[in-house]
Specification:
Prot_kinase_dom; protein serine/threonine kinase activity; Phosphorylase Kinase, domain 1; Ser/Thr_kinase_AS; 15% strand; transferase; two-stranded antiparallel sheet; alpha+beta; 2 domains; kinase; 358 residues; Transferase(Phosphotransferase), domain 1
């Protein structure tokens, strides 16, 4: 992806020197900015290892009283180590900036995926949501609430593995039953108990995962409106619509997470047992072409939820053992097994039983 133009990088040197570890990084492409931070590709001049450099202006940070928040972000993020969390490699500072060295996710965030694709298939959604849950489960197991889970904070590496990033709003639960009261989060993904200031905990992340899953499958956030006031009103009333085309297993999982009462939402561990994830094999791999187009239809994914083994392509093409097609609808009306597979999305039991016997 082409680098964005950064017209105000004069306050950031081209070479960044970490005196503590005696490392020098060369500042390369500008990726974007958010809050008080700018993000660049940076390269270790000795090893040529490439990282993402999050650079925070001290001047802006102090002006907006964000020093404590920055300290907490670094403290929390540096303590984490999980395959689905953006890796924290280190930090250093000079008179002007704080520099945070992070794992580089070259496929950017899931927001870019969403903008290109608008909606993704349930097959792909299962792949992404499973990894998001694994990352959030690690956080919750370590008493950390992210509080800002959204597509823009879910990054993808070259293998399209999900990496949860940006711990600027994250907090640690200090004692059992503690409820946080800080107003924080992104408008479209913010949980109702944060808006009503009733106190919140891990359940806000479950709500946000529900918003993420809905957005991936439907193409827009569940409570999105033209104004912030209307969005917050819909969130407080839990006023959203589940499209009829969503399959029951997907709809059930979204609805369970988008409950007004946080006590009624499943825990992060509970989510792994929902039919959406447990009744079909979770894909272990997606090709990078999925950034721009849907993957080829997985026949077994839709038809046989109990069988994770893919049949040989020759079998689908009718080359091998075509005698198993009995005198049913498919044999009488369709010419070969590959034509039959095109009907896989139909929910008629005649189609389903015939395809399962291929």
């Amino acid at each position: 992806m082409a680098a964005k133009v950064d017209d105000k990088s004069s306050d950031i040197p081209e070479r960044l020197y970490d005196s503590t570890n005696n490392k020098t990084y060369k500042r390369m492409r500008f990726f974007g900015k958010g809050g008080f931070a700018k993000c660049y590709e940076i390269i270790d001049v000795v090893t040529n290892d490439v990282y993402a450099g999050k650079i925070v202006s001290k001047k802006l940070m102090m002006k907006h009283n964000q020093k404590e928040k920055m300290t907490q972000e670094i403290t929390i993020h540096r303590s984490l180590n999980h395959a689905n969390i953006v890796k924290f490699h280190g930090f250093f500072e000079d008179s002007f900036n704080i520099y945070i060295v992070l794992e580089l996710c070259k496929k950017r965030s899931m927001m870019e995926l969403h903008k290109r694709r608008k909606t993704i298939t349930e097959y792909e959604c299962r792949y992404y949501i499973y990894q998001i849950i694994q990352g959030v489960k690690y956080l919750h197991d370590n008493r950390i609430i992210h509080r800002d889970l959204k597509l823009g904070n879910l990054f993808l590496n070259d293998m399209l593995h999900v990496k949860i990033g940006d711990f600027g709003l994250a907090t640690r639960i200090e004692y059992e039953g503690e409820r946080k009261r800080t107003l924080c989060g992104t408008p479209n993904y913010i949980a109702p108990e944060i808006l009503t200031k009733k106190g919140h905990s891990y359940e806000v992340d479950i709500w946000s995962i529900g918003c993420v899953m809905y957005t991936l499958l439907v193409g827009q956030p569940p409570f999105e409106t033209k104004t912030l006031k209307d969005t917050y009103s819909k969130i407080k009333k839990c006023d959203y619509r589940v499209p009829s085309y969503l399959r029951k297993s997907a709809a059930d999982m979204v609805i369970s997470m988008l409950q007004s009462n946080p006590e009624n939402r499943p825990t992060i561990g509970d989510l792994l047992h929902f039919d959406f994830l447990s009744s079909s094999p979770v894909p272990m791999f997606l090709p990078s072409s999925c950034l721009t187009m849907a993957p080829r239809l997985e026949l077994n994914e839709t038809v046989d939820h109990d069988n994770a083994q893919r049949k040989p392509l020759t079998e689908f093409n009718g080359i091998k053992d075509d005698t198993r097609l009995e005198s049913t609808f498919l044999k009488n009306n369709l010419h070969d097994a590959i034509t039959a597979s095109a009907q896989v999305c139909r929910h008629n039991e005649d189609y389903r039983s015939d395809i399962e016997s291929l």
